[in-house]
Amino acid sequence: MNITKHNLFVRKNAPLPGQIQAIWRSPRRQSSLVSRHSDASSVESPKQQPSQLHRISTVNLVRNIVLGKVFTSPFLFKYGVACLSKIANSKSAILDPDKNALLRALIKPMIYDHFCAGTNKLEIKRTLDYLKTMGFKGVILIYSKEIPAMPVEALNDPEPLIQDEDIDSWRDGNVKTLDMVEPGDYVGIKFTGAGPRVAQALAQDRDPPQQLLDAMSIICERAAAQGSRLWIDAEQQVFQPTIDRWTIDLMRRYNTHNQALVSTTLQAYLKSSRTTVKKMLQQSHREGWTLGIKLVRGAYIGSETRSLIHDTKTQTDDCYNSIATDLLSKSFPGFTPQDFPPIELFLAGHNSESIRKAYTLHQNLLQNGDTPPPIKFGQLLGMADDISGELLAMGDSSSQATENPATAPMVYKCMNWGSVRECMHYLVRRATENQSAASRMESTVGVMQKELRRRIGF
C-alpha cells in the first residue's frame, strides 16, 4: 500500500502551512483514523511533546473536536439526533441520503466518514490497510443492513416464503464482508439484518429458518477457511435470548480445538449478564467447546425495558469489571482454574479504567506463571481514540521491554460498512452512545484541543 498517496503524510521538516495543506489534499478527504507520523516537527519543547493522540490525523482530530462539542451540547444533541432518527426511519426518497445528493453531502463527510469504514471495497480497503499500518492488530468489520429497533408487537407476522430474498441478500453481504478482511480479523454478524421473518423467529423464540442455517454454514466455513473470526452482535432484549441460543448452537458446532471461530456478545448493563455467563460456561464445560465472549456495556439503552438494566452506571461498570476479572483469573463462581473451560475474551469498551484494570491483571497473571485466556481489546471507529492510542503505546513499550508478544495488547478497531442509508440506524446509536458519555467526552475534547494547538504551534 502506498501510504503517501493514501492520506496525510508530509515531509518531516516541511513548514506547518505545507503540512496542513497536504492533509486537506488527502485522496479520501475525510481520511482514516490515525497517522503514521506526528504533524509537528521532530524537535519539541517540553510543552509541545506529542500526546497519545499523535497517531490521529489532523482531519480526524478536528472532526472529533467538532462532534464532541455537538454531543456535549444538550440543544445541539437533541435536534441533531432527532434529525438523524427522522432520516433513518423515513421511507421518503427525499430523506434517503443514497438518493438525495445534498443530504448525502451533509451526512457523509462529517458523520458517516467518521464512524464508518466506507461504502465500497476501495474505500474499505484503504481504511483497513491504513489502520493496520498504524499498529492495530486487526479490525472488526460489520455489514450495516438491519431492521430498525422496534417493539415486538410492531413485527407483523409475514407470510411464509419458500425462498426469502432478505436472507439471500444478508448472506451475500456478509460473504462480501469476509472478502474484505484478512486472517485474524473479525466479521460482525447481526441476525436481524436477515429481514423481518428472521426477526419474527427471534422475537418468538423459534428455531432459525433452514435458509438462515444454510447461510450461516456458508459464512462460518468461509471464515474458517481464510482464518477470520465471527462475532454475533447483541441486539434488543426482545431478540437476545433467542440470539444467545442460536449462537450457542454455532459455537457448539464450530468452536473446536480450543479456538473460538464464533463469539457471542454479552451486555454488562443487563442485570442478568453474570447469570448468562455462568450458564454459558457450564454448557461449554459440559459439552467440550470453546466459549468466545465479546464483553460490552450495551448499546440499546434507549429502546430496552429499563427494569432489565442496572440502575446506575456504577453498577454497570462494576458488573463489566467483575466479569472481566473472573474470566481472566478463571475464578468465576462455581469453577476452579483446573476445570475452567477454554474461553477467548474480547473486551470491547471505551472506559479507560476498565481497560487498564484488565490489561494490568492479564500482565500480572502472565508474570506469575498463570495461563489466563487470550485477551483482545477493541474500540469503535471514531470513538475513544485516546484509549486506542494508550493501548497502542502500551504495545510499543512492551515491545521495547520484552520479546514476548503475549505481553503486548492486541488492539482492534470496529467499524460498519454499507451505503449511507444502510448505516443510518448505526449512526443514530453511535450518537446516542457518545452523548451518554458526555462528561468523559468533555475532558477528551479538551485533550484533543491541546493536541491540535501543539500541532499548529500555539
From TrEMBL:
A Pfam family: Pro_dh
Cellular component GO terms held in the UniProt record: mitochondrion
Reactions this protein catalyses: L-proline + a quinone = (S)-1-pyrroline-5-carboxylate + a quinol + H(+)
Family: Belongs to the proline oxidase family.
Protein name: Proline dehydrogenase
GO biological process, one term: L-proline catabolic process to L-glutamate
PANTHER family, sorted: PROLINE DEHYDROGENASE (PTHR13914:SF34), PROLINE OXIDASE (PTHR13914)
Domain of life: Eukaryota
Coiled-coil zones: none
Keywords, in A-Z order: FAD, Flavoprotein, Oxidoreductase, Proline metabolism
UniProt feature, compositional bias: Polar residues: 29-51
Annotated spans, Disordered: 27-51
Domain Proline dehydrogenase intervals: 181-442
A molecular function GO annotation: FAD binding
Cofactor(s) in the UniProt record: FAD
Group of enzyme by EC: oxidoreductase
Task of the protein: Converts proline to delta-1-pyrroline-5-carboxylate.
Source organism of the structure: Aureobasidium subglaciale (strain EXF-2481)
